[in-house]
Amino acid sequence: MEKIKILIADDHTVMRQGTRKLLEQEPDMEVVAEAADGEEAVRLAGECCPDVALMDVAMPKMDGIEATRRIRSICPQTAVLVLSAYDDDEFVFGLMEAGAAGYLLKSVHSRELVAAIRSVREGEAVLHPSIARKVLTRFVPAASGAKARTKEAPSGPLSERELTIIKLMVRGLSNREIATELGLSVRTVHGHLGQIFAKLNVNSRLEAAMRALREGWVSLDEMPREDPKTLKV
Fold first, then answer.
1. Dist. CA 177–CA 173, nearest whole Å
2. Domain span including residue 181
3. pLDDT tens for residues 109-135?
4. Cα dihedral sign for 130, 135, 140, 141?
């Protein structure tokens, strides 16, 4: 089994050690580096090119936003998953714009953190529900317009099946969960997502969800609210 290589960046030693112990219990995960500040995180990412960088926000020398931006620049294949105690708008929007693939709060359950690491490794964006609503509300101002109020809004270039997949995605279902819901294989769902991305000229589930919200094909009311589960978009 090819293991997911993980870099943990957090200035609290106990937090790093606890997270490492948790993740290394998983047979498909390997912590390849630990960083105590943002500069060290960037340097180590350049040396080991991890699959996932687990990133804190408030760190000495360089904060998580700048560290994320630099890691994404030097290691574009590395998915950055933020694990923070803060959900301030400036951090959330700064990290999303810097290229973070996900944003979780440190109150997340351990099983959800493990699942989120696997999800971002597979190209999904994972957000805590309250974070997701911040992001989508901020970047989709048209979602509250006339289109969004129309129950039978046209799906534009999307087929009925593709629109159904978009709606399930916005509800927070992973690719595997969508496959189970629709009685499809995961591979078929991946194929549909590829077609959706091409039709909408987007590169990720998050961008596709934002486009669907802007066009009124789905509404923010269909998103989970304060729920212990993370949202995979």
1. 6
2. 136-232
3. 888 899 889 988 887 778 776 677 677
4. positive
